[in-house]
Every structure is written in structure tokens, then in C-alpha cells.
Design brief:
single chain; mainly alpha
Length: 77
């Protein structure tokens, strides 16, 4: 079976239209951090930022450089 749509696109579209889904993913990221899986948690947070406010707007709101935010939410630290 051939996939017709990238899974990231599907998740991003749902995040933009379904705030309950976004909340559930945020809660999952929190649980992952608490359970010792920070790499996966950061990747989920990265997708949340990309699909919602974007890194430039988050940088403006937090007064942090967007490159620093990208690094903070990368898989490897």
C-alpha cells in the first residue's frame, strides 16, 4: 500500500484544526520528559511549535533566538 500523504503533514493539519489533539500531544511530551525520554519529548514539542506558532514567533514571545530554540528542541543535546 502506498502512502499518499506525508505523516508529518497529516499531524500538522490536525494540530492546526484540533486544539484537543494539540493538548494531548503536549501532555504526552510532558509525560515523556518525566519518564526519562527527553529526545522524543523534544521532537514532539518541535512539531507542535512548527504546526502552531512557528519558531520565529516563539522567539519573539520568549526573547530567545530562534536558532537556540531549534537546538533546544532537537533530538540530540
Amino acid at each position: 500500500m502506498t502512502l499518499t500523504r506525508d505523516s508529518i503533514e497529516t499531524v500538522n493539519a490536525r494540530l492546526q484544526r484540533d486544539s484537543a489533539f494539540a493538548t494531548a500531544l503536549l501532555n504526552e511530551a510532558i509525560l515523556l520528559f518525566l519518564n526519562g525520554e527527553p529526545e522524543t519529548a523534544r521532537l514532539i514539542l518541535r512539531e507542535l511549535v512548527n504546526a502552531t506558532v512557528g519558531f520565529e514567533e516563539l522567539a519573539n514571545q520568549t526573547s530567545k533566538p530562534s536558532k537556540s530554540l531549534h537546538r533546544m528542541l532537537s533530538a540530540f543535546m
